[in-house]
Amino acid sequence: MTGTLQTDMKRYDLMNQVNARGTFVTSKACIPYLKKSSNPHVLMISPPLDMSPRWFQGHTAYSMAKFGMSMCVLGMAAEFKEEGIAFNALWPRTGIATAAIQFALSGEDGLKSCRKVDIMADAAYVIFNKKSRECTGNFFIDDLVLYEAGERDFDKYRVDPTRNLMQDFFVPDSAKMPPGVKLEAIA
Predict the structure, then answer these.
(1) What is the mean pLDDT of residues 92-99?
(2) Any residues with CB less than 8 A from the CB of 162 and at least 6 apart, and which?
(3) DSSP states of 98-158
(4) How far apart are CA 65 and CA 3, in angstroms?
(5) Which helix (DSSP H) or strand (DSSP E) does residue 42 occupy?
(6) Distance (Å, rounded) from C-alpha 118 to C-alpha 71?
(7) How far apart are CA 93 and CA 178, in angstroms?
(8) What is the gyration radius of the CA atoms in the chain, in angstroms?
(9) Of 62, 125, 147, 157, catalytic
(10) Binning pLDDT at 50, 70 and 90, where does residue 59 land?
(11) CA distances from 7 to 12, 61, 82, 103, 134 (A)
(12) Rounded (5°) CA angle 128-131-135
């Protein structure tokens, strides 16, 4: 293998070990404990399944790893439905101000075009409080979950209201924005 191919394969292996394989192994390891819970949930931070070529072009390995997580949601939701264990996915509509954005994508300035991590935490809280037997196999978008739960103030999640929000990858066109949500700068 050439040096470039070796580097590509190391990145591919790492992404799939962490994302798809890690999700599968961790989820399987938790099953005995989840079976003892009164409202068991597993929530993957993975995108809705949408096999559009646009999500793969230029970053095939990353897309495969993230969609591998989503396939775990789909398969495990069906596999553990009778036991009442919910498997769902949550994905952000916009960039989220995390170390990945800061150090791997767009630097300190890029964080200003993101939403705070609070939006994902609040959406996860809503999902975890749903009845696991009635809520499994879903691919949720953060602001849609919160809108359906009654949230109307999405501007509080912006890092910098004077900046346009960065759209995230993998949000399908069918995931319409809730009324009142804007990606453009507000101040």
Answers:
(1) 91
(2) 185, 186, 187
(3) SHIIIIIIIHHHHHTTSB-THHHHHHHHHHHTS-GGGS-S-EEEHHHHHHHTT----GGGB
(4) 22
(5) strand 41-44
(6) 26
(7) 11
(8) 17
(9) 62
(10) confident
(11) 9, 12, 43, 19, 44
(12) 85
* Rounded Cα distance, 63 and 81, in Å: 27
Q: Summarize pLDDT for 14-50 with one digit per residue, the tens.
A: 888 999 999 999 999 999 999 999 999 999 999 999 9
Specify whether the CB–CB gap between 1 and 9 falls below 8 A: yes
Cβ pair 159, 98 in contact under 8 A: no
Is 62 assigned a catalytic role?
Answer: yes
Q: Output the pTM of the full model.
A: 0.92
Q: Collapse the DSSP code of 74 into the 3-class scheme (helix H, G, I; strand E, B; otherwise coil) and give the result.
A: helix
The two three-digit tokens of residue 76, written as one number: 């495990």
